[in-house]
User: Fold this.
Amino acid sequence: MPEQPQPKSFWKALGPGLLWAGAAVGVSHLVQSTRAGASFGFALLVVLFAANLFKYPAFSFGPRYAAATGTSLLEGYRRQGKWALVLYALLTLGTMFTVQAVVTLVTAAMFTALLGWKDPLAGLAPTVWLSALLTLICAGLLAVGHYKWLDKIVKVVVALLTVTTLLATALALPKIDWGAMEWLPSADFLTDTPKVLFLVAFIGWMPSAFDISIWHSLWTLARRRETGHAPSVKDALTDFNVGYLGTVLLALCFVILGAGVMFHSGEKFSDSPAGFAGQVIGLYTASLGDWAKPIIATSAFTVMFSTTLTVVDGFPRAIAALVARFQEPETPGQPSQISRKVYWIALVVLGLGAVGIIWYAIGGGKAFKSLVDLATSLSFLSAPLLAWLNHRAMMGSEVPAEARLSPRMIAYSWAGIVLSGLFAAYYLYVLITA
Assistant:
């Protein structure tokens, strides 16, 4: 007889998908989606939906593999050969410092908007110290609460941002001049270099970078240790789908807010982190009124703080697991504890590297959008390789027959890999010939 589902099994599995959403809903939404709407109206909505559609398989393989095998995606990489672990290590080292720098900087900017500071990040030293302080706070929370606190904090933050964003969007809809909106990308979007560069930066973290699929598999195992419940593949995917669809909805809302308030207004986003944060808060208050500013500012800061918190945990957790995979395999059903020593060393190195990038690149906030675009573009270039590694992991013999990919899902996954690979090659061509 088939195994009967356990009572309330989904609620025991719920958590990693919301952590995924907490990591994803941040710069890609508050910054890039808002910029897309403000600059191009609704023209990039088709790009938004296409990016989410074709990235779905690679992201879903994180919880799918962990639930099916009882091990993380990094074990799936190890089974392909140490070359796969080396490739993942190189991709991670190539992106993690810029990713951490950007999410920390945007969080610092939202903190200034919350306190009503005019532009404290206009000088180099305040930028560095505030970013360093946020990293230390995140490290302290993780040291005290580990996965349990991470899980609880992010659930509250995601719920708060979702409610306020949906409300602001609903109130903004009647104010939109629908006839003046652009609905499709113009013909020069693939030939005009600045537009190509923004398109790449927009897609790079839409809805997020593929690194999170590895983190998701590790969070799924951490949730399993926390609750003592081994989720089924179905429950793990349902948990993931809740978070994934939520991020798509919020990205749509931010495009609408940017388009409704700033498109054709003549107003441009500031290159200063604090100035940009104030403009994002202004998108909400333009719809809801000034009374909502404290609520919106709190919501925006907390969602960026949750992103910073998940990234501060995600990269070190993945690096610690990666080091362990070079030494020994994972035991299915008994996921090995990552080395706390390696975890904390990686966290310190990540924090110092991110603060160093902010020190070097920002220097007064003038390079804010350029730094964001650099981080998202690097993630865009790494996407085809990570998606391919995830696909190969799901095709491994260790995956039980009942959890293996259907022919349609295999074709769906390959479509995403090929499209992202072709676009990455075209992007490199544009950079070389520009």
User: Anything to note?
Assistant: Residues 9-433 form a domain with the Amino acid/polyamine transporter I fold (CATH 1.20.1740.10). The mean pLDDT is 83. The first helix runs from residue 9 to 13. The chain has one domain: 9-433.
